[in-house]
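User: Before I run my own analysis I want an independent prediction to cross-check against. Here's the chain; please return only the structure tokens and, at the end, one sentence I can use as a sanity check.
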Amino acid sequence: MESTSADRTSAFFRFEDLRIYHKALDYITFVHTATANIRTDGSDNLAGKFNEAARSIALNIAEGSARNKNQFIYYLKMAKSAVREALVLTSACKSLGYLSEEQNLESRGYLMEMTKMLGALISSLQRTQDSGKDTDEADDDVVGDPRSYDAQNY
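Assistant: Structure tokens:
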């Protein structure tokens, strides 16, 4: 289920304006649906781990957005780590026959796109940081922060 710009028009928190955040929410829905029929046996809860990795992407974006730029970059890198974890879990689920080839390709497509989006946002934040616009004070978490990034691009 793809989010629309109409869903984002009245965002109170900055991260809700980020395209990458909405892509991560879409990925959570995809993973939840794709893993719904995977059996779980306490010792190897592959579906649970996969769902947690998917949630971690969005959670790191949200958590980092309330921090200063250095910390936001750190959390965005943690989101990229969660993307890599989700890729490993995609491969594991595919090799065990839990995901179809179509689901495998769809998961990989989401993950490649999110990696590019996160990389672009990190680069943008580092450029503004390098130009001397950053301080170590915490950013406001709400829309309208003057040091805010251009959310429509990420």
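Sanity check: The CA atoms of residues 75 and 138 lie 14 Å apart.
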